[in-house]
């Protein structure tokens, strides 16, 4: 009956069920009582008739603090399939669902496991996933469902979720189609009311239609309160009037039934056994299902298969709201007694029964938080710790528990929660203040903060180190060092950080010290950093997080070959551990470094994936950095329109907060674009901005690593005097940075060309730096041709053209072709590279397939289902004109050779 007037919505949902390959699903939004559940029930019934398997989960307000409770409910019918998952996924999912003990699983690894399990189940029969009252799902389950929804591509799976107005959920950002339910129009509302209560007197019917105002739940429930209608306060919101209606129905029931209903409303599960056990404790006698029969007759609840279910959430919420505090407390204590073998649920009911601080209950909640964290339920752990803090008699314990909750919020990317918890902690002593300061600085690496904050962090680190807390001091130093990448605090603040690092009783070869030093003093300490990096590169693979920040350190000191190696080693481990917050950082460094080396084929998928995961994990500036790298790739490929579009997008991400690496890469892209389009003065102006300390694009390390491009622009714009000043200033740095040394050799050869200068540039160790070698050959060939040594020039120009063709650097390859033609040698135009026909996502899949990975293994690497991988490969093969993995591997190897 509540579906009267919902023809359009039913048709849309029916189309979704008929063709689940077309869309991942829908989020149905609307106020309480609007008919969301009725619409979903009708859709589920139609799906079952159509041959789909329906898996359900329903959020419950009392279960929001039980990690993965909603996911457990959804996957319970298909739990047998967990045993067939790949080992890391199997272990993660079993641990998350409390089916086994194991290491703390990442939410992303749990998400991948759920996706794989559902994809496997969908092979036998298409799936309809239903998530009702998603606003009350525990956060861990909601995150997993959002993860799955974003990755439903080729699988015959569709997700339908319901969400109450005024609530947020991760599912809103998961790419699901929105469906907003409005109240029923007058004719449909009248039809519903007449179907429910066909013999109402006309005045009563008119009054009910006015009171209900088109809300389906009101139309079906208010007729039962016709006797009390005159007593309803017309000022009350309709939902409160409905709650009063339900409360009035409860008041007419026997006392034992009211007691049982209150227990059921406060219990976070639908277990009839638990409800009756706790009710028996309250009544002092055993309770059986008969005590609830009057509530069933009053249409408040339904009993089935050992479960007691309220017909609507408003019915459930009305009961505790109308009960006395003493009655609620006694009901919670009765549930505590009934849940002796379930410590987590028991602790929450104990907390609800507390009238004031209680360390015993607080300690139980801390243990609950530890278990939730162990299962990967950060949100549940945060809630438990916050409640434990509220019940802590000791001020120090209260502060520590709030700070631990804040740390978990930081790790899970919940900025507002972390800030709220830190401010609530209000630490009084230096150690706790230092922890609080570090936690608040973790988000966005301090990009939005005053650069003066770096000096403050240096002082904090010094104080913490003086207290003997060296690991904590190192964490603070690392946080401050990252700020030196994104912002510019000035030489004095940098020196303060170095002074603290130097005084720590930690070996200089410790990867943490190496990374901090590289960020803070990339030139002053560059030689020592490079030495340590070369020693450490043989140990990659032991700890992906260490590899990740050593890759960043190598980028700072211009060792792009090492940066690419470290970050490439970090990525598989971060994927395996499901640490998708760190993964885009490693991928962005890998992409930036590979572009500078000329490895565009390797940079394209890394940059695309970095953008995707940075956005998904809420890292706007890292997404901007990776987008700027994509812009640079487009410029080097000669796709100037795309380069400009991406550069503008990246600039918008970085400009408001002054994210210097983003803006520096944007200016580099614009310089490259203007160079290849012949606007040399514009190119020189773009690139020179990187060298101006007053410019927001100035980044102390990155400014020194675009010398070849700056040289090209300056010479062609007639700015050689300005270039000589730049070269002299950079030479004065005395830095051993490989990228700077290579760039300076190139600049000296172009400024004062001679056979000896170019030979010196080519004699440099350019192993792994093909783009730089190609650039020197091109400049040497151009100079030889101008010296009328045409035959000699052709050799170098031909080498440059072949190099740039192989690298996909179309703008530079075209320039080499023009020079070759001027030297009297025709050069075939380069056709589209087979890789150019693929999207970055497809290229990533193709490269992994060419390496021999199976679809399942590729899916684990890229957080996709193996069916999605298979679908992409079916598209990739005809694009490249191949029919097998062996052909694919051969083609890509030829292109790279």
UniProtKB/TrEMBL annotation:
PROSITE patterns: HTH_LUXR_1, HTH_LUXR_2. The keyword Protease does not apply. Pfam families: AAA_16, GerE. The keyword ATP-binding applies. Keywords: ATP-binding, Nucleotide-binding. CDD domains: LuxR_C_like. GO terms for biological process: regulation of DNA-templated transcription. InterPro entries: AAA_16, P-loop_NTPase, Sig_transdc_resp-reg_C-effctor, TPR-like_helical_dom_sf, Tscrpt_reg_LuxR_C, WH-like_DNA-bd_sf. One of its GO terms (cellular component) is cytoplasm. It comes from the Bacteria. Residues 831-896 form the HTH luxR-type domain. One of its GO terms (molecular function) is adenylate cyclase activity. Residues 819-839 are annotated as: Disordered. This is Regulatory protein, luxR family.
């Amino acid at each position: 009956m509540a579906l009267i007037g919902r023809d359009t919505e039913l048709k849309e949902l029916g189309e979704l069920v008929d063709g689940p390959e077309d869309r991942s699903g829908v989020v149905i939004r609307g106020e309480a009582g609007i008919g969301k559940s009725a619409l979903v029930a009708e859709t589920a019934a139609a799906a079952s008739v159509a041959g789909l398997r329906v898996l359900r989960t329903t959020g419950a307000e009392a279960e929001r603090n039980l990690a993965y409770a909603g996911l457990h409910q959804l996957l319970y019918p298909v739990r047998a399939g967990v045993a067939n998952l790949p080992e890391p996924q199997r272990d993660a999912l079993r641990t998350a669902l409390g089916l086994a003990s194991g290491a703390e699983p990442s939410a992303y690894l749990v998400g991948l496991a759920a996706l794989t399990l559902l994809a496997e189940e969908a092979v036998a029969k298409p799936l309809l996933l239903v998530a009702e009252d998603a606003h009350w799902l525990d956060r861990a389950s909601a995150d997993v469902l959002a993860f799955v929804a974003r990755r439903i591509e080729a699988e015959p799976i569709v997700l339908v979720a319901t969400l109450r107005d005024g609530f947020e959920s991760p599912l809103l950002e998961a790419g699901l189609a929105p469906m907003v339910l409005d109240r029923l129009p007058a004719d449909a509302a009248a039809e519903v009311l007449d179907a429910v209560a066909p013999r109402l007197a006309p005045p009563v019917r008119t009054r009910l239609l006015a009171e209900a105002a088109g809300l389906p739940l009101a139309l079906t429930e208010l007729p039962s309160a016709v006797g009390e209608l005159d007593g309803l306060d017309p000022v009350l919101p309709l939902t409160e009037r409905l709650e009063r209606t339900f409360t009035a129905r409860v008041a007419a029931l026997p006392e034992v039934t009211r007691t049982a209903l209150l227990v059921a409303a406060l219990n976070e599960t639908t277990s009839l056994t638990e409800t009756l056990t706790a009710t028996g404790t309250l009544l002092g006698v055993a309770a059986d299902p008969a005590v609830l029969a009057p509530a069933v007759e009053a249409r408040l609840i339904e009993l089935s298969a050992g479960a007691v279910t309220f017909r609507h959430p408003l019915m459930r919420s009305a009961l505790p709201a109308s009960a006395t505090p003493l009655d609620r407390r006694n009901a919670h204590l009765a549930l505590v007694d009934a849940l002796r073998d379930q410590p987590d649920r028991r602790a929450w009911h104990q907390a609800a029964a507390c009238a004031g601080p209680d360390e015993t209950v607080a300690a139980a909640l801390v243990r609950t938080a530890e278990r939730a964290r162990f299962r990967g339920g950060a949100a549940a752990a945060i809630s438990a710790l916050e409640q434990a803090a509220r019940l802590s008699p000791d001020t120090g314990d209260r502060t520590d528990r709030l700070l631990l909750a804040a740390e978990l919020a930081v790790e899970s990317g919940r900025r507002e929660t972390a800030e709220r918890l830190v401010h609530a902690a209000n630490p009084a002593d230096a150690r706790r203040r230092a922890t609080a300061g570090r936690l608040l600085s973790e988000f966005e690496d301090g990009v939005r903060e005053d650069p003066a904050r770096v000096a403050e962090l240096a002082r904090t680190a010094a104080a913490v180190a003086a207290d003997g807390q060296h690991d904590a001091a190192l964490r603070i130093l690392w946080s401050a060092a990252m700020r030196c990448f994104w912002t510019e605090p000035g030489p004095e603040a940098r020196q303060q950080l170095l002074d603290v690092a130097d005084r720590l009783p930690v070996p200089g070869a410790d990867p943490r010290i190496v990374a901090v030093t590289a960020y803070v003093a990339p030139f002053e300490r560059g030689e020592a950093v490079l030495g340590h990096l070369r020693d450490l590169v043989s140990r990659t693979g032991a700890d992906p997080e260490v590899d990740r920040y050593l890759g960043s350190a190598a980028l700072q000191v211009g060792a792009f070959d090492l940066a690419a190696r470290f970050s490439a080693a970090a990525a598989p481990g971060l994927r395996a551990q499901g640490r998708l917050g760190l993964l885009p950082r490693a991928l962005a460094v890998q992409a930036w470094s590979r572009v500078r080396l000329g490895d565009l084929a390797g940079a394209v998928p890394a940059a695309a994936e970095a953008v995707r995961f940075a956005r998904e994990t809420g890292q706007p500036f890292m997404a901007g950095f990776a987008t700027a790298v994509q812009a640079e790739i487009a410029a080097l490929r000669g796709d100037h329109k795309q380069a400009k579009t991406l550069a503008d997008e990246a600039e918008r991400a970085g400009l408001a907060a002054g994210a210097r690496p983003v803006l520096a890469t944007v200016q580099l892209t614009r310089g490259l674009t203007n160079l290849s389009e012949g606007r040399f003065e514009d190119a020189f102006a773009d690139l020179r901005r990187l060298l101006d300390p007053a410019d927001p694009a100035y980044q102390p390390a990155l400014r020194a690593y675009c010398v070849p491009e700056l040289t090209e622009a300056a010479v062609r714009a007639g700015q050689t005097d300005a270039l000589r000043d730049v070269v002299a200033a950079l030479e004065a740095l005395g830095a051993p940075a490989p990228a700077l040394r290579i760039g300076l050799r190139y600049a000296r050869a172009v400024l004062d060309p001679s056979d000896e200068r170019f030979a010196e540039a080519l004699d440099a160790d350019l192993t792994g730096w093909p783009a730089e070698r190609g650039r020197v050959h091109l400049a040497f060939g151009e100079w030889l041709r101008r010296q009328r040594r045409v035959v000699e020039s052709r050799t170098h120009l031909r080498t440059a053209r072949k190099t740039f063709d192989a690298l996909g650097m179309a703008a530079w390859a075209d320039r080499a072709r023009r020079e070759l033609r001027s030297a009297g040698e025709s050069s075939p135009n380069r056709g589209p590279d087979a890789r150019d026909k693929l999207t970055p996502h497809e290229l990533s899949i193709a490269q992994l397939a060419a390496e021999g990975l199976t679809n399942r293994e590729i899916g684990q690497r890229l957080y996709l289902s193996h069916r999605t991988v298979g679908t992409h490969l079916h598209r990739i093969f005809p694009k490249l004109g191949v029919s097998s993995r062996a052909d694919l591997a051969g083609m890509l190897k030829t292109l790279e050779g």
